[in-house]
Amino acid sequence: MKEGESFGWNSLLDLDPAEVVRRTGVAYDAGTRTYTVPIYGHPVKLCMESRTIDGKGEQFEAIIGKYAYFSRISVLSYLINAKDVLPTGHQIKPAADGALEKLFQGSHALPLDGISARWDGQADGFIEKGKLYNGEPGTLGDISLKLEPFERIPVELVLWFGDDEFPARGDLLFDSTCNLHVPPDIIWSIAMMSILILF
């Protein structure tokens, strides 16, 4: 991860900040050479001078601290690669997309069974947990949560509660434009991060 992160900082340094801002919708302070990127609505600051990622609060500590393996390379990749293309509202399952399918199998399978079991029958608790990350209730499944890891890359976590016939299950949906903004391995990292913060 360290090598990938170092490459990310070097690549971002080569870019024109005005162009990065135009493509991604983030803020940039030329005086401090700092990007401010909302991740799940929480402002995260990337200082180009010190190559540090900073923020405040418990949610920041979870996103950039506990789940650093997924978040740090994701935010750098977003700034480097994202296009000036807004979400369409048409959602897809990453595992059902031909370009992404193999990446979400085997050891890279998402922990959807775990998150659905964690919140089985607990709609209120699931939504309250999601609100900590500026999530909003959706209309799919028995309960769903709309999240915004990055402005151009919304996701929706959908849960179906278990019953006498079937166990609880879940799905994670991305906007159909997701693969325009970041490479497939980063989509996987964003998916993992979006699930793990809700445990």
Report on this model:
- The model has no long low-confidence stretch (mean pLDDT 93).
- The radius of gyration is 17 Å and the shape is globular.
- It has helices spanning 2-13, 17-24, 58-66, 68-81, 112-118, 123-131, 178-181, 184-196, and strands at residues 27-29, 34-39, 42-47, 52-54, 91-92, 136-137, 143-150, 153-160, 169-175.
- It is α+β, with helices and mostly antiparallel strands.
- The strands form two sheets. The protein has a five-stranded antiparallel beta sheet. Strands 1-2-3-4 form a four-stranded antiparallel beta sheet.
- 38% of the residues lie in helices and 23% in strands.
- A hairpin with a 5-residue loop joins β6 (136-137) and β7 (143-150).
What amount of the residues lies in strands?
A: 15-25%
Number of helices: 8
Going across the biggest sheet, name each strand in turn. Answer: 5-9-8-7-6
Which sequence of SSEs, written as H and E, runs from N to C? HHEEEEHHEHHEEEEHH
Secondary structure class reads alpha+beta
What number is the mean pLDDT?
Answer: 93
| Straight-line distance between termini | 23 Å
Number of strands: 9
User: What Rg do the Cα atoms give?
Assistant: 17 Å
Percent helix, as a range, is: 25-40%
The gross shape turns out to be globular
